[in-house]
Write a structure and sequence with these properties.
Aspartate Aminotransferase, domain 2, single chain, 2 domains, 362 residues, Aspartate Aminotransferase, domain 1, 13 helices, three-stranded antiparallel sheet, alpha/beta, seven-stranded mixed sheet
């Protein structure tokens, strides 16, 4: 069997019986939207994440968009974020009517460079969306200090960092709001789309709960224009099963990363740099190589499927040609030409990783 960058079916195989029982429970209930499974998962995930409130939504992009709406960020406003992430992080800003502003990343961790934030702040800046990339927390403590100095809101994009920690605190507990995706390839993934917004702010939680369900205060009674983006019962039931095994699967990912770290030592590829004092949960294991394309082709011939995260920094995509500012972000631009994601999922064996590393070393 080929070795993929990620393999969501692997977790289903490991948890097949309880997942099938959860699916059957939903089917037997006859309630498929806004039922007990969603309510229970919201409570369980909020508790796991160290926050008081969680609202399930349709996907991670909607989680970010609704967070911006709840903070009343819109036309004329600017939101600072990173160019090294999936485009949906910045799309959410555009959906809200605001303008994304990109700041370059650290060359070693690929995380947004907090030392460059203040030079990007203008009178129009209202918020920062830092991304905890590939499963490693960014320097959220320093980012919060900048935000506090300039009275900016912070929405933590935790879509790749379920379970990641800074010291003894979960990511998502630092900012005003935290956003998660439950896309199938995530560390906590469903069998379809899903997402959640988490917060300790009761007022913001109430706003998002209204927004995500058409702004209904009672059935068919809409007090304002809302949106239709809800986590369904089936996904919630499956996520409840997987949440109980999340830390176990993170430990397996960390073991896979440790094998990579040991067996790629001394090669021409640059291994991931882990910041001291954080818990990296290895959503992805991303190396750098000056011969990235050749390496990817060689691995593919051996049945090892890799991916590039991300082949273009966001400011280089045609989708953002409308932005008036001209960017030169050298670290993001170079990383996009050198980064390669090696296979990373709980079911990888020692022999699998040894095989991959042997080819890389050659």
């Amino acid at each position: 069997m080929p070795l993929y960058t990620s393999y969501p079916k692997d977790e289903y195989t490991l948890l097949k019986k309880p997942i099938q029982q959860a699916i059957q429970r939903v089917l037997d209930s006859g309630i498929y939207v806004l039922g007990k499974e969603v309510a229970s998962f919201e409570q369980d995930f909020a508790h796991y994440s160290g926050l008081q409130y969680a609202i399930g939504v349709g996907n991670g992009t909607d989680a970010l968009f609704l967070s911006l709406k709840a903070l009343e960020i819109g036309p004329g406003d600017e939101v600072i974020t990173t160019p090294m992430t999936a485009a949906y992080s910045a799309f959410s800003v555009v959906y809200a009517g605001a303008t994304p502003v990109f700041v370059d990343v650290h060359p070693d961790t690929f995380e947004i460079d907090e030392t460059q934030l203040e030079r990007a702040i203008t009178k129009r800046t209202k918020a920062i969306i830092p991304v905890h990339l590939f499963g490693q927390p960014c320097n959220i403590v320093a980012i919060m200090k900048v935000a506090k100095r300039h009275k900016l809101k912070v929405i933590e994009d935790c879509c790749q960092a379920h379970g990641a920690m800074v010291g003894k605190r979960r990511v998502g507990t630092f900012g005003d709001l935290a956003c998660y995706s439950f896309y199938p390839t995530k560390n906590l993934g469903g069998i379809g789309d899903g997402g959640a917004v988490l917060t300790n702010n009761k007022g913001l939680a109430a706003k998002i709960r209204l927004l995500h369900n058409g702004h209904q205060t009672s059935k068919y009674y809409h007090t304002a224009v809302g949106h239709n983006t809800r986590l369904d019962e089936l996904q919630a039931a499956i996520l409840r099963v997987k949440l109980g095994h999340l830390d176990q699967f993170i430990a397996k990912r960390q073991q896979v990363a440790a094998w990579y770290d040991a067996w790629l030592d001394g090669t021409t590829v640059t291994k991931p740099v882990v910041t001291k004092g954080v818990r990296h949960v290895y959503h992805l294991y991303v190396v750098r190589s000056k011969q990235r394309d050749r390496l990817q082709q060689t691995l593919a011939k051996a049945g090892i499927i890799t991916q590039v995260h991300y082949p273009w920094p966001l400011h280089k995509l045609p989708a953002f040609d409308f932005l008036e500012k001209t960017y030169r972000l050298p670290h993001s631009e170079l990383i996009s030409q050198q980064a390669l994601s090696l296979p990373m999922y709980p079911g990888l064996t020692r022999a699998n990783v040894r095989q991959i590393c042997k080819i890389v070393n050659q």
